[in-house]
Amino acid sequence: RLRCRCNFHALKFAHKIQETGALLVRRMHQQTLTQSVLDDNLLGHFRASSTRTGEKFVLGASSKYLAMHLRFEIDMAAYSLCEFGGGAEEKKELDTFRAIHFPALTLFANST
């Protein structure tokens, strides 16, 4: 379950980013044979179907993961409605930015 209220499934990365991401995921998966169902969506055709000859990943099994914001700017942070651990001062700054630039999100956030 995602913490953010962004349209996660609409995100598509450039091929170079998918290729780099696939390399990172392969390196992380060298310790385990589990693979997330989302790997195909995020990494496209760069996703490996197996790490070792003849061994298949176990789809849907739990595994460790890495979350990485490639574009960490105030508009992205405000739009995602996430909390990034900056305390009350950060929350106030994001709320102010959101009220000016994304008034519909402010209404949505106040109604939930």
TrEMBL record:
It holds the Pfam family O-FucT. Keywords: Carbohydrate metabolism, Fucose metabolism, Glycosyltransferase, Transferase. One of its GO terms (molecular function) is glycosyltransferase activity. One of its GO terms (biological process) is fucose metabolic process. It comes from the Eukaryota. InterPro entries: GDP-Fuc_O-FucTrfase, GT106_glycosyltransferase. Belongs to the glycosyltransferase GT106 family. This is O-fucosyltransferase family protein. It comes from Nymphaea colorata.
